[in-house]
Amino acid sequence: MKLRHGLLGLALLTLTGAAAADLPPPDGTKFVSFEFRVENLTAFTEHVLLAYPCSSSNGMPVAAHVRLEEGKVVRVGRRGGNCKLYSMKKSAYEQWAKSYTAGGQSQDPALEALFKSAQVVECAGSPTLTSSLPSTDPRDVVSESLRAERIDDRVCRVTTVAAKDGPPLAPPPTAATATATATAAATATPAPAEPPRAPSDAPAQPEAKSGGCAGCSLPARAPAPSGWLAALVLAIGLRRVRARRPE
Question: Does 37 have pLDDT greater than 60?
Fold first, then answer.
């Protein structure tokens, strides 16, 4: 009876995992592949770098691990695990691997025991897995490049660096941001060109000089009398004065 229940539970787990893997992505998104690689491993030849749990499965989760090599690209499935990084003494790992056989199942007691033991050191830094992107994103594969900074018997440190073919990976744009950008570009209206000005017949006004009261409004002055008119007025005045004097 117990055996029958165990087999039934395993079958249900398998069917549930396969059904979850076959579900389509949410509206406005798409499934993409993810891959990563770690560089500078040749600087730490006494140790190995391991990723666990890590597999290429897109269906039922599989308990598996990957031994990383310099520049080796690791493809991770949507249900391949979080690919946490660990370091281990190379000689100890090779001795353990001699007696290990991968089971290809969702559970692997030998792997679980290894990564819980004191022989491995959990790394600071791991790949950031991405399995889906907005439908507007042109990428079908998300790639991440990492670099081993320090690996010894007590410390493992790995950092994300620039990919060989481009700048550091940027977070993908959201669907709302992409839609707003496309709408703004489609609805933008260029400013109308200013029509040419017709030439004016009015005389140009003199440019106001700075300082003083250049901008003040002054009353118009009467034109000054000419010289002969002033002399005539003066003569008439003298004659009137002489006529008034007693003889």
Answer: yes
| Coil vs helix vs strand at 43 | helix
The predicted-structure confidence for 120-147, as pLDDT tens digits, reads as follows 999 999 999 998 999 999 999 999 999 9
Written as six digits, the tokens of 92 are 């100890």
CA-wise closest residue to 150 among 41, 16, 241, 71: 41
CA 186 to chain centre: 23
* Residue 40, phi then psi, degrees to nearest 5: 70, 20
Provide the terminal-to-terminal Cα distance of the chain, rounded to the nearest Å.
167
- Residue 53: asked if its preceding bond is cis (omega within 30°), the reply is yes
3-state secondary structure of 74: strand
* Token output for 237: 């005045």
| Nearest CA-CA partner of 155 in 125, 128, 114, 117 | 125
